[in-house]
Structures are given as C-alpha cells and as structure tokens.
Design a protein that fits this description.
- Two copies of one chain form a homodimer.
- By secondary structure, chain A is mainly α.
- Chain A is built from five helices and two strands.
- In chain A, strands 1-2 form a two-stranded antiparallel ribbon.
- In chain A, a hairpin with a 7-residue loop joins strand 1 and strand 2.
- The longest helix of chain A is centred in the last third of the chain and has 34 residues.
- At the A-B interface, helix 1, helix 2 and helix 5 of A face helix 1, helix 2 and helix 5 of B.
Chain lengths: ~120, ~120
Amino acid sequence: MDRLSQVFVALADPIRRDLVARLAEGDASVGELAAPYDVTVQAISKHLKVLEQAGLVSRSGGRRSPVHLEPEALGLMTDWLERYRRRAEERYRRLDAVLAAMSDEPAGEPEESDDPSGG
Amino acid sequence: MDRLSQVFVALADPIRRDLVARLAEGDASVGELAAPYDVTVQAISKHLKVLEQAGLVSRSGGRRSPVHLEPEALGLMTDWLERYRRRAEERYRRLDAVLAAMSDEPAGEPEESDDPSGG
C-alpha cells in the first residue's frame, strides 16, 4: 500500500484517532494508552502497530518504551487535502464572480461595446 | 460508521484520491472520470458512491448529472489533523527550548554564579 493510503487507513478508526489525540498531549506507554478503553492491551498494541506502520507514531526503544507521535505524518495528509480544497474553492469563487457579473450585465450587452468595429 | 471515519476510508484509496484531485479542477461526468483508467465505468461508479456517502462529492440531479466536489468535507479532515499536529509540534518546540536552556546552563552552575556566597 502507498504511504498516503496507509495514513488515511490508519486514521479511519475512532480508537486510533483517539490514540493520536492523546499522544499529541505527550508520549505514553502502551499500558497507559490502553487504560481508558474497555479492550485488551493486545487490541491497543494492534492499533498502535497500524499507526506505527503508517509512520504516525514511533518508539525510541523496544516494546516497553513510550509511544511518540510523529506530527510530520499528519502534515503529509494536510498538504494533500489543502491542495485540492484550495483549488476547488478558488474555482467556485471565480464561478461565483462570473455569475454575479452575468446578473449585473444582461447577455449580449457587454460594458465595453461602444466600438462596433470589434464585433 | 462515524462521518470522520467515512472520509478517511474514502481517501484511503489511490483511485478515489485521484478522482478527488481531478474533480478539484472541474465537475465531470462518470464517463469522463472513468476514461483515463483501465477499469470499468461500474468500478468508477462504485468508487464515486463511497466518496458520495462520505459527503466528499455530490450530484445535483440523477445518475447522469455531473459529479461535484464538496471541499468542506476535505476541510473537516484538515481541521482534525491540524489540531493535533499543532498541539504536538508546540509541545516538541517547548521541549527543545527546555533542552537548549539546560545545555546552556550546566546543572548546579547557573549563569549568575559570580557571587560565591550563593554556592
């Protein structure tokens, strides 16, 4: 799977998004991360593995070292989303401007039409 | 599935991201959207259905009307991502500042130590 698909899949789960939200406040151990949920530590480990493989979290040491959020991976998604959001919104703004201009000037009567040689 | 999970799932596929990128340039029919890919129109229709159910695209009329990108749905994801990215990055910046201050002033020997009565 490509990197961008992996990060989108990783955040397509409410528990994994909650883990990211909590890790934004500070590094935490797997046990600390699992505590508030009514699921096994194993289930949380599995979710963390998905986040780790997507590059969203990392661990400095072994399995017992704290989990650390990698904000650059979030930035990767934001960059993609914002590129197309801005492009679409600019286009809709231009379209609105054209529609507004059209309602000001009835068709066939442009403002600069006093030179008949142009037509 | 919650709305945010739906939009992340919808963009966790390279063809669906490509459809969004192309729709950012302008509305298009299903046939136009399907043309560049080596897949059936039916497959593209299925992908568009996933994007539509997530609120990422809409159609003004029936099945033959052009597909329209909804940039607000992209903004929903950006808002979520940026909230936690900023929070984590601010925390890392503060941590860096603390570490930098610590390396400037070795422990037990603060900069203002020229008054020997202090030690």
